[in-house]
Structure of carnosine N-methyltransferase:
Amino acid sequence: MAKDALDPTRYPTFPPPETDPTTLASLSTYLVMIAVEEYERERDIVIKTMEDRVYALSAYNNKLDTDAEQEIEAVREGFNHNLAVLQTLLFPPLSYSSSLPSPTPTPAPHHSPSSPQPLQSSSSYTLLPQIITHLSREYTTVVPASYSYLTSKLDLDSGRAPKILIPGAGLGRLAYEVLKKLPNATVELNEFSVPMATALSRIIHNGLTVDIFSHVQSSATVGEVSSKNRLQKVQVSVLPLPQNSQLSLTTGDFVTCYSTPLNTNNAYDYILTSYILDAVPNIIEMILIIKKLALNSRSQNIKTAWCNYGPLHWHNGVELKLSVDEIKDILTKEGFVIDEWEIVVGEAYRNDVDEAMFMTDELYNCLKFCVTLDDSKEFEDDIISRIEEGRRQIKEKKDLEIVNANEDDPEEEEESTMRIEEL
Ligand SMILES: C[S@@+](CC[C@H](N)C(=O)[O-])C[C@H]1O[C@@H](n2cnc3c(N)ncnc32)[C@H](O)[C@@H]1O
């Protein structure tokens, strides 16, 4: 095991890095199948909600509404159409591998997954809405504030082709925006969710021309303004990125992927994070790994600017939820100089149209910042051992909590002893 990589025997990862490629391939297939099943479940919930509505309205009107019954069928067909789109995007899934990020423009999916916890879920639920809001013609004419801020930080006149890392790349819209401004940039994407990474890779390489029923999915879950919108379709038409784009992709948890030994390719002029800080299991670890990448870049005379735009509303399953000032404090302590720091109020992530389609809207207060490592300071590269130590202490605390809970509840303890004996 390389000296500066996290030791998986002490901190079990998911799946263990030693897992053989066949197992990893079936794991990705499994994750993608779960994603499709989640979407099927979503369809069944929506259909059930619609049926309940029809029964209630029929009872109220004292006659069965046959039009409504037909509409339910049409919504079901809309879902099935969307499912077929999902399946074309997701099969065959990208397979995990454990190589380092490729410097070549070919996709080089790799995985050396997260230790704290896998957060793979919700991708099927958000994938199609995200395709619509990030990649469809209606929306791509509007560049969301996050991408315009992050691309405004790129130096277009430096005279050299910069290297840019985008952790948590989602569907890659930021990469499109970066390459629009700097076609000769080398862009490295990282994405944790296998379904998302698979769709991303497919869209970026093959483009996408497809109709999606944009509203069926939301029709049962958020208040609709007009029931007529349920069967609305959106045409998504995305050109593939030009063959000569310098683009690569790493698939896996950001911290784990970049805690492996770094090489000369891991030197970045920019690290751009958009709507991701509140999605990673442990933001302190993310800050530390970005510092490690900045130090590695510095050793090759490249000064990394880390620019961020996004909320801190903390996704489900994220255990460490810091406040904005706590994050600023950690950045400063780690030797980052704050070049820009601002909270933007009420930003839309998915929905940039003026007309209200639903009675709920997603608006976020976003933290935007740009930081660089202090040139005047020397830093020790002890980051991996600090992450390990942090994990060790957290684990120790959790183990102690379990012991204390068992002591409080002797029956539970007895039961767990019995379970151990049975084994
Ligand atoms: C809200 S989306 C933002 C996507 C994209 N950056 C954008 O601005 O549209 C967050 C993305 O981060 C990914 N993600 C979450 N945790 C991650 C991790 N630990 N490592 C890498 N990517 C992660 C999610 O799968 C998801 O695609």
User: Anything to note?
Assistant: The beta strands are 163-167, 186-191, 208-213, 233-238, 246-251, 270-274, 305-310, 336-348, 363-373. The chain is about 45% helix and 15% strand. Residues 21-61 form the longest helix (41 residues).
